[in-house]
Each structure stands twice: as structure tokens, then as C-alpha cells.
């Protein structure tokens, strides 16, 4: 039991680091291309890499259509819609702090619907953790929010699409993992292959029709795309699906609260963006909230 706890903790810590490095990668990549084109090449390359791997390892087995459609739907929501909405909001000049704050609603949404969709009702101490975690994000992000007059009114609603998409995707995946029905179990590589293939199909239309696939190829962009493909789309999403097979959706969702403070720490290293006192306080509050969600049995007596 103790080994399983340590294993889950290690997976969760690695997931948080890899997942949030994607925002830094997007910061490097967006100056050279548009949102849909960046995601098109990212998931197009990932699809080819996974297809080659599955062929070489002889893992590309024929799967029921229902399994493929379910996996593809989860992928389009978790990859395509989630990332497109977050990046489009930034392209619309919505302050990054506001985007981070809106996206941080996802654990609360997951906790609210987990009982209805999956049958895993969040306890009152987990709800305390979810609320505490959101307050921590608000402390860390609130001091950085600067309302930008250049952002369109519609732009401020775009990040809610990310919240809705990743919440539905997480709950659908968790419900399948806990279902009593004998669904075929896909490997992580097969799961990501169908998800990335469906995502690139969906992204083709806006990437071609809206952005004309315009991109400025250079070494910095190639390096950024390589990391986004292997480190984020492959490794971090693989870890998220692995965690959802072991932990309830609310516990996994609470890890997203660590996104803003961890991303700010990464921005400090990458861009010299010095952390503020509110960042440190927010991180401590977020950590306390996540601990309440992960270990409700450790609540104060």
C-alpha cells in the first residue's frame, strides 16, 4: 500500500511538471505561427510517431468501433478543444492571469459532477480542499491580473471552453475505467494514437482555412515542437490517463491547481519573471488544498 502511494505521488509530481511546461512551450512557439497551425503540426507529428511505434512493436490491433470513437472523443476534448481555447484566449490578448484563473475552475467542476457521472462523490473535506486550492490560485494569479483593453469581450469567455472540455474528457475517461462492463483495455500508446489522430483531423479545417498553415520554421520552433510533442502531448497526457486509472477524477483534477504557481516558477527560470510574495503564499495555500483532496483522512480532528 505504501509503495502504491509513493508510486502515485511520483506520477503526480512528474505529471504536474510536464503538463505545465506546455504553457512555457506555447509561449516560445506562438510568435512563429497561429494556434491551430501549431497544434496541427504538433499532433500530426505525434500521430506519425505513435503509428510507427505501434507498427514496430506490433501493438496496432483491431479495436471495436465504439472503443475508437470513445477514445477519439476524449482526445478531441482533452487535446484539441482544451488547448485551442486556452491559446486562442491568449491570442485575443486576454491576460494570462485571467486565463489561468478561469482554467483553475476545472477541479471544482470535476468535483461537482464526479458523483453524478462516475459515482465518486467528493467528501466535504475534499470540497474544502477544492475551495482552498482555488483560493490559492486566486491569491497567486490575482495580483498579476491586468485588464487589457485590447482583448475582445468574447475573448474573456473562451477559456471556459477549456474548463468544460477537460472536465468532460476526464469524467468520460474515469467512468470508462471504473465501468463494470468489459471494455477492451487500450495501452497508453494506442490511446494516445487514436486521440492524436482524431485531434489532428479536427484541427485540419481551421489550420488550413483560417491560418493557411502559415509558419516560420526555425531551430527554436523545431526544438519547441519537439518538446511539446514528446514531453507534453506524449508523456504528460500518458501520465494523466494512468493517474485516472488509479485515482478518482476529483483527486486528479486537483493537481491542476498547481498549474499557475508551477508555471510561474518555470517562467522565472525561462523568462526571468521574478516570483512575488503572493506567488509563494498562493503556492502554500494551493498545496494545502491539494493535500486535503488527496488525503482527506489526514483532516484535522
Automatic annotation (TrEMBL):
One of its GO terms (cellular component) is membrane. It is a multi-pass membrane protein. Pfam families: EamA. Residues 11-140, 183-293 form the EamA domain. The chain crosses the membrane at residues 36-56, 68-90, 96-118, 125-147, 153-172, 192-210, 216-240, 252-271, 277-295. Its main location: membrane. Keywords: Membrane, Transmembrane, Transmembrane helix. The keyword Transmembrane helix applies. It comes from the Bacteria. Belongs to the EamA transporter family. It is found in: Membrane. PANTHER family: EAMA DOMAIN-CONTAINING PROTEIN, INNER MEMBRANE TRANSPORTER. This is DMT(Drug/metabolite transporter) superfamily permease. InterPro entries: AA-Vitamin_Transporters (IPR050638), EamA_dom (IPR000620), EmrE-like (IPR037185). SUPFAM superfamilies: Multidrug resistance efflux transporter EmrE.
Amino acid at each position: 500500500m505504501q509503495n502504491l502511494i509513493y508510486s502515485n505521488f511520483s506520477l503526480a509530481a512528474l505529471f504536474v511538471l510536464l503538463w505545465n511546461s506546455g504553457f512555457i512551450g506555447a509561449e516560445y512557439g506562438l510568435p512563429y505561427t497561429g494556434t491551430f497551425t501549431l497544434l496541427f503540426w504538433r499532433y500530426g507529428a505525434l500521430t506519425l510517431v505513435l503509428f510507427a511505434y505501434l507498427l514496430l512493436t506490433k501493438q496496432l490491433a483491431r479495436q471495436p468501433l465504439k472503443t475508437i470513437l470513445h477514445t477519439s472523443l476524449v482526445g478531441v476534448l482533452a487535446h484539441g478543444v482544451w488547448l485551442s481555447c486556452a491559446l486562442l484566449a491568449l491570442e485575443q490578448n486576454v491576460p494570462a492571469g485571467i486565463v489561468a484563473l478561469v482554467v483553475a475552475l476545472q477541479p471544482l467542476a470535476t468535483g461537482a459532477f464526479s458523483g453524478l457521472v462516475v459515482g465518486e462523490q467528493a467528501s466535504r473535506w475534499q470540497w474544502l480542499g477544492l475551495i482552498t486550492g482555488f483560493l490559492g490560485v486566486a491569491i497567486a494569479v490575482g495580483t498579476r491580473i491586468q485588464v487589457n483593453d485590447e482583448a475582445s469581450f468574447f475573448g474573456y469567455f473562451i477559456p471556459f471552453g477549456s474548463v468544460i472540455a477537460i472536465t468532460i474528457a476526464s469524467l468520460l475517461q474515469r467512468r470508462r475505467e471504473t465501468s463494470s462492463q468489459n471494455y477492451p483495455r487500450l495501452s497508453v500508446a494506442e490511446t494516445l494514437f487514436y486521440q492524436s489522430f482524431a485531434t489532428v483531423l479536427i484541427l485540419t479545417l481551421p489550420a488550413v482555412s483560417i491560418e493557411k498553415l502559415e509558419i516560420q520554421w526555425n531551430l527554436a520552433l523545431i526544438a519547441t515542437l519537439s518538446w511539446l510533442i514528446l514531453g507534453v502531448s506524449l508523456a504528460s497526457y500518458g501520465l494523466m490517463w494512468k493517474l485516472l486509472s488509479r485515482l478518482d477524477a476529483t483527486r486528479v483534477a486537483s493537481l491542476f491547481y498547481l498549474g499557475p504557481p508551477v508555471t510561474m516558477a518555470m517562467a522565472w527560470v525561462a523568462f526571468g519573471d521574478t516570483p512575488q510574495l503572493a506567488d509563494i503564499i498562493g503556492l502554500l495555500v494551493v498545496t494545502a488544498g491539494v493535500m486535503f483532496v488527496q488525503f482527506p483522512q489526514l483532516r484535522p480532528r
